[in-house]
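Entry 14. Ran structure prediction on the chain below.
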Amino acid sequence: MVNVPSLFIFLWMTVFGNGAIWMDRNVLGGTLSKLVNEPDILLFAFFESFPMAKAICVMAITMIAIFFVTSADSGILVMNSISTSNHPHSPKWQNVFWGVLMAVITMALISAGGLKSLQTMTLISALPFGIIMFILCLCLFKGLRTDELYNSAHMPYGSRNWNGEHWKLRLQQIVTFHQKSDIKRFFKEKVEPAFAELQ
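Output, structure tokens:
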């Protein structure tokens, strides 16, 4: 099965990326290279060299809008899960609140310093999550090592699930059925109902 997003990114980078480099060197005389520090203008300047440039620019804006809406929807879903302790149904006003907050912060950053300030803020805000991801990786490694030690230990099954606590209660349960009446009661209360249910 083909991964459509990966295929699209591959085609975009190879077709448009190599096309932009070739056109900048052979047709546009380095015009695109001068805009390398302004990526929000560079894309549309490249599209202007194509026929039907306006239609291509509209298509690009539509794709960018879909990308932002999809990313924002994922972010709203994560923030809702965190703020409601992973409740399956969050209130509608909360979805609107997170969406409006994200839009306001994004527009404020773009108006303050353009795309560069938005990218810088993204990197700064991602740093704490990077530390959290590193801790999660360490915990995963520790859990996998514990699981490997647990499965490789040559111990009886019943001993694996006992950590030494409540040893008096376990000992009492082991030596409880030492009389015939106790055994009969156990068969009547436990074994017979179990076999009846099995039947």
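The radius of gyration is 32 Å. Will compare against last week's run tomorrow.
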